[in-house]
Amino acid sequence: MIIVLKPKTPPAQEKRVLAEIRRLGYTPHVMRGVARVVIGAIGDERTHKSLEVLMTWPQVESVMPVQKRFKLVSREAHPQSSTIKVGKNVVIGGGNFHVMAGPCSVEDEKQLMTTAVAVKKAGATILRGGAFKPRTSPYEFQGLGEKGLKLLANARKETGLPVITELLSEQQAEMVAEYADILQIGTRNAQNFQLLIAAAKTGRPVLLKRGMCMRIEEWLLAGEYILANENPNLMFCERGIRTFETYTRNTLDLSTIPVIKRESHSPIVIDPSQGAGRADLVAAMCKGAVAMGADALLIEVHPNPTTAWSDAAQQLSFDGFAKLMRELKPFIAAAGMK
Ligand code: PEP
Ligand code: MN
Fold this sequence. Notes:
By secondary structure, the chain is of the alpha/beta class. It has 2 domains: 2-64, Phospho-2-dehydro-3-deoxyheptonate aldolase, domain 1 (Alpha-Beta Plaits), CATH 3.30.70; 84-334, TIM Barrel. It contains 10 helices and 14 strands. An 8-stranded parallel β-barrel has the order 7-8-9-10-11-12-13-14, surrounded by 7 helices. Bound molecules: phosphoenolpyruvate (PEP) and manganese (II) ion. Residues 104, 130, 134, 186-187, 209, 239, 271, 274 line the site of phosphoenolpyruvate.
Protein backbone atom coordinates (compact mmCIF):
# COMPACT_ATOMS: atom_id res chain seq x y z
CA MET A 1 0.00 0.00 0.00
CA ILE A 2 1.07 3.56 -0.69
CA ILE A 3 -0.03 6.14 1.86
CA VAL A 4 0.27 9.82 0.93
CA LEU A 5 0.22 12.34 3.78
CA LYS A 6 -1.25 15.82 3.44
CA PRO A 7 1.24 18.67 2.86
CA LYS A 8 2.77 20.11 6.06
CA THR A 9 1.75 17.19 8.30
CA PRO A 10 3.44 17.75 11.69
CA PRO A 11 6.06 15.10 12.65
CA ALA A 12 3.97 13.86 15.58
CA GLN A 13 1.02 13.15 13.24
CA GLU A 14 3.34 11.34 10.81
CA LYS A 15 4.66 9.17 13.66
CA ARG A 16 1.11 8.11 14.57
CA VAL A 17 0.55 6.92 11.00
CA LEU A 18 3.84 4.98 11.03
CA ALA A 19 2.90 3.35 14.34
CA GLU A 20 -0.49 2.30 12.97
CA ILE A 21 1.11 0.82 9.84
CA ARG A 22 3.45 -1.25 12.06
CA ARG A 23 0.57 -2.26 14.35
CA LEU A 24 -1.30 -3.67 11.33
CA GLY A 25 1.69 -5.84 10.43
CA TYR A 26 3.42 -3.82 7.68
CA THR A 27 6.89 -2.30 7.52
CA PRO A 28 6.75 1.42 6.65
CA HIS A 29 9.25 3.08 4.29
CA VAL A 30 9.17 6.87 4.29
CA MET A 31 9.86 8.84 1.10
CA ARG A 32 10.20 12.59 1.62
CA GLY A 33 9.29 14.76 -1.37
CA VAL A 34 9.40 18.54 -1.64
CA ALA A 35 5.76 19.02 -0.70
CA ARG A 36 4.59 15.66 0.58
CA VAL A 37 5.56 12.57 2.53
CA VAL A 38 4.76 9.25 0.85
CA ILE A 39 4.88 6.03 2.88
CA GLY A 40 5.27 2.64 1.27
CA ALA A 41 3.80 -0.06 3.55
CA ILE A 42 5.52 -3.36 2.79
CA GLY A 43 3.57 -6.57 3.45
CA ASP A 44 1.13 -8.90 1.76
CA GLU A 45 -2.09 -6.95 1.33
CA ARG A 46 -4.08 -10.11 0.75
CA THR A 47 -3.23 -11.65 4.12
CA HIS A 48 -2.60 -8.57 6.29
CA LYS A 49 -5.28 -6.32 7.70
CA SER A 50 -6.42 -3.58 5.36
CA LEU A 51 -4.74 -0.19 5.62
CA GLU A 52 -7.67 1.46 3.84
CA VAL A 53 -8.95 2.62 7.22
CA LEU A 54 -6.16 5.23 7.17
CA MET A 55 -8.20 7.06 4.52
CA THR A 56 -10.32 8.41 7.37
CA TRP A 57 -7.37 9.92 9.24
CA PRO A 58 -7.19 13.73 8.92
CA GLN A 59 -3.46 13.79 8.09
CA VAL A 60 -3.82 11.22 5.25
CA GLU A 61 -4.50 12.36 1.68
CA SER A 62 -4.81 8.99 -0.05
CA VAL A 63 -4.26 5.27 0.32
CA MET A 64 -3.55 3.21 -2.80
CA PRO A 65 -3.22 -0.55 -3.09
CA VAL A 66 -0.29 -1.87 -5.14
CA GLN A 67 -1.25 -5.54 -5.11
CA LYS A 68 -4.20 -7.15 -6.86
CA ARG A 69 -6.86 -8.63 -4.63
CA PHE A 70 -7.14 -11.85 -6.62
CA LYS A 71 -4.42 -14.43 -6.45
CA LEU A 72 -5.26 -17.90 -7.77
CA VAL A 73 -7.03 -16.69 -10.93
CA SER A 74 -4.17 -14.30 -11.76
CA ARG A 75 -1.72 -14.92 -14.56
CA GLU A 76 1.01 -13.92 -12.12
CA ALA A 77 0.25 -17.05 -10.11
CA HIS A 78 -0.06 -19.26 -13.20
CA PRO A 79 1.70 -17.80 -16.26
CA GLN A 80 0.57 -20.57 -18.63
CA SER A 81 -2.98 -20.48 -19.96
CA SER A 82 -5.15 -23.12 -18.31
CA THR A 83 -6.88 -25.78 -20.35
CA ILE A 84 -10.16 -27.27 -19.18
CA LYS A 85 -11.07 -30.83 -19.99
CA VAL A 86 -14.78 -31.29 -20.64
CA GLY A 87 -16.27 -34.77 -20.98
CA LYS A 88 -13.89 -37.25 -22.56
CA ASN A 89 -12.53 -35.45 -25.62
CA VAL A 90 -13.05 -31.71 -25.41
CA VAL A 91 -10.29 -29.39 -24.16
CA ILE A 92 -11.12 -25.69 -23.85
CA GLY A 93 -8.23 -23.23 -24.02
CA GLY A 94 -4.72 -23.74 -25.29
CA GLY A 95 -5.48 -22.98 -28.95
CA ASN A 96 -8.49 -25.25 -29.48
CA PHE A 97 -11.57 -23.27 -30.46
CA HIS A 98 -14.94 -24.59 -29.29
CA VAL A 99 -18.56 -23.68 -29.86
CA MET A 100 -21.21 -24.54 -27.27
CA ALA A 101 -24.65 -24.35 -28.85
CA GLY A 102 -28.25 -25.32 -28.18
CA PRO A 103 -31.54 -23.88 -27.04
CA CYS A 104 -31.93 -21.27 -24.33
CA SER A 105 -34.33 -23.65 -22.54
CA VAL A 106 -34.87 -27.37 -22.92
CA GLU A 107 -38.55 -27.62 -23.97
CA ASP A 108 -39.16 -31.23 -25.00
CA GLU A 109 -37.35 -34.27 -26.34
CA LYS A 110 -37.84 -33.51 -30.01
CA GLN A 111 -36.80 -29.87 -29.71
CA LEU A 112 -33.60 -30.78 -27.85
CA MET A 113 -32.65 -33.85 -29.86
CA THR A 114 -33.12 -32.21 -33.27
CA THR A 115 -31.09 -29.21 -32.06
CA ALA A 116 -28.32 -31.40 -30.66
CA VAL A 117 -28.03 -33.28 -33.97
CA ALA A 118 -28.12 -30.05 -36.02
CA VAL A 119 -25.51 -28.16 -33.97
CA LYS A 120 -23.21 -31.17 -33.93
CA LYS A 121 -23.49 -31.49 -37.71
CA ALA A 122 -22.60 -27.82 -38.09
CA GLY A 123 -19.49 -28.22 -35.90
CA ALA A 124 -20.50 -27.45 -32.30
CA THR A 125 -18.62 -29.56 -29.75
CA ILE A 126 -20.72 -28.91 -26.62
CA LEU A 127 -24.50 -28.85 -26.20
CA ARG A 128 -26.12 -26.08 -24.18
CA GLY A 129 -29.62 -26.09 -22.71
CA GLY A 130 -31.25 -24.59 -19.63
CA ALA A 131 -33.27 -26.92 -17.40
CA PHE A 132 -33.49 -24.52 -14.46
CA LYS A 133 -34.15 -21.05 -15.86
CA PRO A 134 -33.58 -17.79 -13.96
CA ARG A 135 -36.53 -15.80 -15.33
CA THR A 136 -37.08 -12.15 -14.50
CA SER A 137 -40.82 -12.74 -14.04
CA PRO A 138 -42.23 -15.60 -11.94
CA TYR A 139 -44.97 -16.03 -14.57
CA GLU A 140 -42.51 -16.97 -17.33
CA PHE A 141 -41.40 -20.53 -18.15
CA GLN A 142 -39.11 -21.66 -15.34
CA GLY A 143 -37.59 -24.67 -17.10
CA LEU A 144 -38.35 -28.39 -17.02
CA GLY A 145 -36.10 -28.99 -13.99
CA GLU A 146 -34.73 -32.51 -13.53
CA LYS A 147 -36.77 -33.74 -16.50
CA GLY A 148 -34.80 -31.29 -18.66
CA LEU A 149 -31.52 -32.60 -17.23
CA LYS A 150 -32.56 -36.14 -18.19
CA LEU A 151 -33.29 -34.99 -21.74
CA LEU A 152 -29.84 -33.35 -21.88
CA ALA A 153 -28.22 -36.59 -20.69
CA ASN A 154 -30.12 -38.50 -23.42
CA ALA A 155 -28.99 -36.02 -26.07
CA ARG A 156 -25.40 -36.47 -24.88
CA LYS A 157 -25.81 -40.23 -25.16
CA GLU A 158 -27.15 -39.95 -28.70
CA THR A 159 -24.69 -37.36 -30.04
CA GLY A 160 -21.63 -37.74 -27.79
CA LEU A 161 -21.70 -33.98 -27.10
CA PRO A 162 -20.88 -32.97 -23.52
CA VAL A 163 -23.51 -30.79 -21.87
CA ILE A 164 -23.50 -27.34 -20.24
CA THR A 165 -26.48 -26.31 -18.13
CA GLU A 166 -27.19 -23.68 -15.49
CA LEU A 167 -27.01 -24.31 -11.74
CA LEU A 168 -29.46 -22.07 -9.90
CA SER A 169 -29.38 -23.27 -6.34
CA GLU A 170 -26.88 -24.65 -3.84
CA GLN A 171 -29.28 -27.44 -2.87
CA GLN A 172 -29.26 -28.74 -6.44
CA ALA A 173 -25.49 -28.67 -6.98
CA GLU A 174 -24.91 -32.42 -6.60
CA MET A 175 -27.96 -33.33 -8.66
CA VAL A 176 -27.20 -30.96 -11.56
CA ALA A 177 -23.53 -32.04 -11.51
CA GLU A 178 -24.64 -35.65 -11.98
CA TYR A 179 -26.08 -34.77 -15.39
CA ALA A 180 -23.89 -31.86 -16.52
CA ASP A 181 -20.34 -31.75 -17.88
CA ILE A 182 -20.08 -27.99 -17.24
CA LEU A 183 -22.02 -26.02 -14.62
CA GLN A 184 -23.10 -22.60 -15.84
CA ILE A 185 -23.40 -19.86 -13.22
CA GLY A 186 -25.72 -17.23 -14.66
CA THR A 187 -25.34 -13.47 -14.62
CA ARG A 188 -27.87 -13.08 -11.82
CA ASN A 189 -25.90 -15.41 -9.55
CA ALA A 190 -22.37 -14.34 -10.41
CA GLN A 191 -21.84 -13.00 -6.88
CA ASN A 192 -23.89 -15.63 -5.05
CA PHE A 193 -20.81 -16.80 -3.20
CA GLN A 194 -22.42 -19.79 -1.48
CA LEU A 195 -23.58 -21.03 -4.89
CA LEU A 196 -20.07 -20.53 -6.31
CA ILE A 197 -18.60 -22.58 -3.46
CA ALA A 198 -21.19 -25.34 -3.94
CA ALA A 199 -20.50 -25.41 -7.70
CA ALA A 200 -16.74 -25.55 -7.12
CA LYS A 201 -17.10 -28.42 -4.67
CA THR A 202 -18.83 -30.65 -7.21
CA GLY A 203 -15.50 -30.79 -9.09
CA ARG A 204 -17.23 -30.12 -12.43
CA PRO A 205 -15.85 -27.39 -14.71
CA VAL A 206 -17.60 -24.09 -13.97
CA LEU A 207 -18.52 -21.45 -16.56
CA LEU A 208 -18.90 -18.17 -14.66
CA LYS A 209 -20.93 -15.55 -16.48
CA ARG A 210 -20.19 -11.93 -15.78
CA GLY A 211 -22.78 -10.29 -13.57
CA MET A 212 -24.71 -7.73 -15.60
CA CYS A 213 -23.55 -4.93 -13.29
CA MET A 214 -20.20 -6.40 -12.34
CA ARG A 215 -16.81 -4.79 -12.68
CA ILE A 216 -14.03 -6.96 -14.09
CA GLU A 217 -12.22 -7.00 -10.74
CA GLU A 218 -15.37 -8.28 -9.02
CA TRP A 219 -15.74 -10.95 -11.70
CA LEU A 220 -12.15 -12.08 -11.19
CA LEU A 221 -12.74 -12.20 -7.44
CA ALA A 222 -15.88 -14.28 -7.98
CA GLY A 223 -13.73 -16.64 -10.09
CA GLU A 224 -11.27 -16.74 -7.20
CA TYR A 225 -14.01 -18.45 -5.15
CA ILE A 226 -13.95 -21.40 -7.57
CA LEU A 227 -10.18 -21.84 -7.49
CA ALA A 228 -9.96 -21.18 -3.75
CA ASN A 229 -12.37 -24.09 -3.30
CA GLU A 230 -9.98 -26.45 -5.02
CA ASN A 231 -11.57 -26.49 -8.43
CA PRO A 232 -9.09 -25.33 -11.11
CA ASN A 233 -11.60 -25.80 -13.94
CA LEU A 234 -12.91 -22.27 -14.33
CA MET A 235 -14.01 -20.45 -17.49
CA PHE A 236 -15.08 -16.81 -17.57
CA CYS A 237 -18.03 -15.96 -19.85
CA GLU A 238 -18.81 -12.42 -21.00
CA ARG A 239 -22.54 -12.07 -21.76
CA GLY A 240 -23.02 -8.33 -21.81
CA ILE A 241 -23.51 -5.71 -19.15
CA ARG A 242 -26.19 -3.13 -18.39
CA THR A 243 -25.50 0.27 -19.88
CA PHE A 244 -27.66 3.21 -20.93
CA GLU A 245 -28.03 1.64 -24.41
CA THR A 246 -31.39 0.13 -25.30
CA TYR A 247 -30.80 -0.77 -28.97
CA THR A 248 -29.30 -4.08 -27.83
CA ARG A 249 -30.46 -6.18 -24.84
CA ASN A 250 -27.06 -5.76 -23.17
CA THR A 251 -23.76 -4.19 -24.16
CA LEU A 252 -21.45 -7.08 -25.05
CA ASP A 253 -18.11 -5.98 -23.65
CA LEU A 254 -15.57 -7.61 -25.97
CA SER A 255 -12.76 -5.67 -24.32
CA THR A 256 -12.95 -8.30 -21.58
CA ILE A 257 -11.26 -10.78 -23.95
CA PRO A 258 -7.80 -9.14 -23.89
CA VAL A 259 -8.31 -8.02 -20.29
CA ILE A 260 -9.14 -11.51 -18.98
CA LYS A 261 -6.31 -12.96 -21.08
CA ARG A 262 -3.89 -10.48 -19.51
CA GLU A 263 -5.11 -10.77 -15.92
CA SER A 264 -5.98 -14.45 -15.75
CA HIS A 265 -4.96 -17.86 -17.05
CA SER A 266 -8.56 -19.15 -17.25
CA PRO A 267 -10.25 -19.38 -20.67
CA ILE A 268 -12.70 -16.70 -21.80
CA VAL A 269 -15.98 -17.62 -23.50
CA ILE A 270 -18.28 -15.15 -25.27
CA ASP A 271 -22.08 -15.39 -25.24
CA PRO A 272 -23.31 -13.12 -28.05
CA SER A 273 -26.90 -14.36 -27.68
CA GLN A 274 -27.59 -12.82 -24.26
CA GLY A 275 -25.08 -10.11 -25.21
CA ALA A 276 -26.93 -8.70 -28.20
CA GLY A 277 -30.37 -10.17 -27.52
CA ARG A 278 -30.96 -10.14 -31.29
CA ALA A 279 -30.32 -13.01 -33.67
CA ASP A 280 -29.38 -10.62 -36.51
CA LEU A 281 -26.35 -9.33 -34.54
CA VAL A 282 -25.01 -12.68 -33.32
CA ALA A 283 -22.78 -13.51 -36.32
CA ALA A 284 -20.93 -10.19 -36.29
CA MET A 285 -20.32 -10.41 -32.54
CA CYS A 286 -19.01 -13.98 -32.92
CA LYS A 287 -16.55 -12.95 -35.62
CA GLY A 288 -15.30 -10.07 -33.49
CA ALA A 289 -14.93 -12.35 -30.46
CA VAL A 290 -12.93 -14.95 -32.42
CA ALA A 291 -10.68 -12.28 -33.94
CA MET A 292 -10.03 -10.87 -30.46
CA GLY A 293 -8.87 -14.20 -29.07
CA ALA A 294 -11.88 -15.74 -27.29
CA ASP A 295 -11.43 -19.44 -26.47
CA ALA A 296 -15.04 -20.45 -27.11
CA LEU A 297 -18.54 -19.19 -27.94
CA LEU A 298 -21.85 -19.98 -26.25
CA ILE A 299 -24.68 -19.60 -28.79
CA GLU A 300 -28.44 -20.13 -28.57
CA VAL A 301 -29.96 -22.23 -31.37
CA HIS A 302 -33.60 -23.36 -31.70
CA PRO A 303 -35.50 -25.41 -34.34
CA ASN A 304 -38.06 -22.62 -34.67
CA PRO A 305 -36.85 -19.52 -32.80
CA THR A 306 -40.11 -17.58 -33.09
CA THR A 307 -41.92 -20.22 -30.98
CA ALA A 308 -39.18 -20.56 -28.31
CA TRP A 309 -40.36 -20.58 -24.68
CA SER A 310 -37.59 -18.18 -23.69
CA ASP A 311 -35.33 -15.68 -25.48
CA ALA A 312 -37.09 -16.08 -28.87
CA ALA A 313 -35.56 -12.96 -30.44
CA GLN A 314 -31.95 -14.03 -29.98
CA GLN A 315 -31.88 -17.71 -30.98
CA LEU A 316 -30.45 -18.78 -34.32
CA SER A 317 -32.23 -21.20 -36.65
CA PHE A 318 -30.39 -24.37 -37.74
CA ASP A 319 -29.60 -22.76 -41.10
CA GLY A 320 -28.45 -19.55 -39.49
CA PHE A 321 -26.15 -21.48 -37.16
CA ALA A 322 -24.69 -23.65 -39.95
CA LYS A 323 -24.01 -20.51 -42.02
CA LEU A 324 -22.33 -18.83 -39.06
CA MET A 325 -20.12 -21.86 -38.45
CA ARG A 326 -18.98 -21.79 -42.07
CA GLU A 327 -18.29 -18.06 -41.91
CA LEU A 328 -16.30 -18.42 -38.69
CA LYS A 329 -13.72 -20.79 -40.18
CA PRO A 330 -11.36 -18.16 -41.65
CA PHE A 331 -11.61 -16.11 -38.45
CA ILE A 332 -10.64 -19.12 -36.33
CA ALA A 333 -7.67 -19.84 -38.62
CA ALA A 334 -6.62 -16.16 -38.65
CA ALA A 335 -6.67 -16.15 -34.83
CA GLY A 336 -4.20 -19.04 -34.94
CA MET A 337 -6.69 -21.51 -33.50
CA LYS A 338 -7.83 -24.95 -34.50
C1 PEP B 1 -28.82 -18.28 -20.59
O1 PEP B 1 -27.68 -18.67 -20.93
O2 PEP B 1 -29.87 -18.64 -21.15
C2 PEP B 1 -28.92 -17.29 -19.49
C3 PEP B 1 -30.02 -17.17 -18.77
O3 PEP B 1 -27.79 -16.58 -19.34
P1 PEP B 1 -27.47 -15.25 -18.46
O4 PEP B 1 -27.27 -15.72 -17.07
O5 PEP B 1 -26.22 -14.74 -19.10
O6 PEP B 1 -28.62 -14.30 -18.64
MN1 MN C 1 -31.15 -17.44 -22.83
